[in-house]
Amino acid sequence: MLKEKIVKEVRKRGFITFDRFVEVCLYDREFGYYTKKRIKTGLGEDFVTAPEVSKSFGKTVANYLKRRVEELSLPLKILELGGGKGFLAKDVVETLNPESYTVLEVREKPKWLKGVKWVKSLKEVEPFEGVVLSNEFFDAFPFKRIKKTEGELREVVIRERDGELYEDTVPFSGELPCQIGEGEEYCLFTGWEDFLRELSGKLKRGVFLTFDYGGKCREVAGRKSFRAFRKNRLSEDYLKHPEETDLTALVDFDYLSLLLEKTGFKVERLAPQSSFLLENGIEKFIEPGEVPQALMLLVDMGRKFKVLEATRARSR
Ligand SMILES: C[S@@+](CC[C@H](N)C(=O)[O-])C[C@H]1O[C@@H](n2cnc3c(N)ncnc32)[C@H](O)[C@@H]1O
Fold it and tell me: How many structural domains comprise the chain?
């Protein structure tokens, strides 16, 4: 069981950092939430993402990408990051029939998905010109939780007593990309920079488009960013059942932008998902009977989710 595995690791070291804890919970080969569990689709179960809510999401995105590759004279080659169950890939491939569509995803390829190449590591991707697309990818990276208490930054770690896990804190010696106030907590995604550097080496020229739940640094730092979901409910006792829990945090788009610029991208725009979908004609792609789903994309998810676009020019 996952909990026993974590307890063993904690006993060896005294504690594990929170990002290590998230990594094990989500991506352990045997028991990880993403790697092991077959997440059910449909509303009301585990979680539901925009491409799963309605095809109109993927079709609107495809429509936009078609225009952008024409404007920038790019080949219609797409790399999707963290493609999950393959819904976005299916809708984009059906709409655009691209030269190539590669999905980077640690989970298994769905058997029904046709016309895409599925890879588990960026190492398998050849350098290319085109598009990098993702939905809810950057929030699925391991993160640290840093709190400010009595003026001092401390990071949450996990310890164990008699086989039960509990939270503690130790001094945090790194730097935070965002100022936080007394009593606030900031979730620091630790793997983003290395990943973006590697990605930047793969995308020779092109467009980067990502959708995620979050906001600018001050918007996410002042809120409860870390969330654990179990059986589609916010869960307070995630340490009791780590194997059944999805751990996530809000994306700080200021930090993501900073790292994109640092790794060779140029950030073009950050906007609410609803503005993006409306500007790009979602109404044309909504099928009869799908109005509630479209409203969910536009109203509820539309405000909470943002889209960030960046470009990558050919390096000289
Ligand atoms: C929250 S899910 C979103 C899935 C899908 N994009 C959607 O919108 O339905 C995040 C996905 O990213 C994958 N993932 C996260 N980090 C990854 C990495 N470094 N390499 C490959 N896949 C990764 C996870 O396995 C998971 O399926």
Answer: 1
